Amino acid sequence: MATKLCLGQIGTKTMSLSLNELKPKIYILYEDQPYVVIETHHLKMQQRRPTVQVKMRNLINGKLLERNFAQSDVFEEANVARRTVKYLYGHRGQYFFSYTNDLSKRFQLTEDVLGDSVKFFKANTPMDAIEFEGKIITVDLPVKMDFKVTEAPPAIRGDTAQGGVKQVTIETGASINTPLFIEQGDVIRINTETGEYVERVSKG
């Protein structure tokens, strides 16, 4: 018997979706809890029907969950809305935001819910807030953001022990692997979804 789940996308109109349409960044209502899909992997086993392994994160408590679904499973949209907000500051695992159209209207989310993305939070950065049943449950960072390098070890000529990369610290305190030529004071672009270096924007 096919499983019926709820998937979240922007809008109020619901529609049925196949398992093949299940992609990262889709919002799922699974067992009455909202999740965001992180990864999907197609599994093929001998003498068994192919399944898709789905890794997802609970947007209420931040816990990761992995489940296998069959091709016959049916999914439905859930009503999820987006609104633009601005990140203000963080304090002891609590992160505070304001609505861009009303700076006096604020809300907070915990590090447990936000996950690893907090290492890329910069004050006054615009973000997409995800609203579910009238309540903001998480935020999405811009996919690519620029950061100033605050610490960088000197590159040693001929150093290829780590494949030509070194670890630097950016202004938020996060550590990033970059090419050897990156120096303190440089501004670099990072993919916030993967945490990977993209390019040098400007030299310090």
Could you characterize what this model shows?
It is a single chain. The protein is 2% helix and 57% strand. It is mainly beta and 204 residues long. It has 3 domains: 4-79, SH3 type barrels (Roll); 81-140, OB fold (Dihydrolipoamide Acetyltransferase, E2P) (Beta Barrel); 144-202, OB fold (Dihydrolipoamide Acetyltransferase, E2P) (Beta Barrel). A hairpin with a 2-residue loop joins strand 10 (126-132) and strand 11. It starts with a strand and ends with a strand.
Largest β-sheet summary: 11 strands, mixed
| Integer-rounded radius of gyration | 20 Å
Count of spatially separate domains: 3
CATH architectural name of the largest domain: Roll
The level 1 CATH classification of the largest domain is Mainly Beta
Shape: flat
Low-confidence stretches: 6-13
- Beta content comes to over 45%
Ends: how far apart? Answer: 60 Å
Question: Which class of secondary structure composition applies to the elements?
Answer: mainly beta
What percentage of residues falls in helices of 4 or more residues?
under 10%
Mean pLDDT value: 84
CATH topology of the largest domain: SH3 type barrels
The count of helical stretches stands at 1
State the order of secondary-structure elements, H for helix, E for strand: EEEEEEEEEHEEEEEEE
